[in-house]
Specification:
Length: 142
């Protein structure tokens, strides 16, 4: 049986390799949440990618591919910086073309919402997020 792909890890690897985004960041790109050792450094410029549910457009098929909705959070020391980080991550994702990252075949990422500014609820760190629909392989590529 094939190993399952990890699309969040694939997106983290893809965005981590983007030079323009990397030049803006203080901390890096993370999947799910900031690691505990990084939270002490906040607020700082960083990206966090999280699964956000939603409906699969492949739900009634047997393809080894699927779509998934993800939220991309840009953090910064100020709301403006958070917006710059989110904008750079969004531009990189719009330029994603079929390629393998962290063992996951990623086909594309399409905008699923506009940017939403705000602050992290518990910490008040400035953040801005945007949702994307991604198309990816379900089985890990070795």
């Amino acid at each position: 049986m094939a190993e399952a792909a990890d699309p969040i890890a694939g997106l983290v690897a893809f965005l981590s390799a983007d030079a323009a985004l990397g030049a803006l960041l203080d901390l890096g790109v993370f999947g799910g949440e900031l690691p505990p050792d990084q939270t002490a450094l906040m607020p700082a410029r960083a990206v966090v990618i999280k699964s956000s549910g939603g409906v699969s457009t492949m739900a009634d098929g047997y393809s080894a591919h699927d779509t998934q909705r993800v939220d991309v959070f840009g953090f910064g020391r100020t709301p403006h910086e958070a917006g710059q980080v989110r904008s750079a991550a969004a531009l990189a994702l719009r330029n994603l073309r079929r390629s393998v990252h962290a063992g996951t075949l990623l086909h594309w990422a399409k905008t699923a919402s506009g940017p939403i500014p705000g602050r992290e609820p518990q910490t008040e760190w400035p953040r801005e997020f945007q949702s994307f629909q991604i198309f990816h392989g379900l089985e890990a590529v070795t």
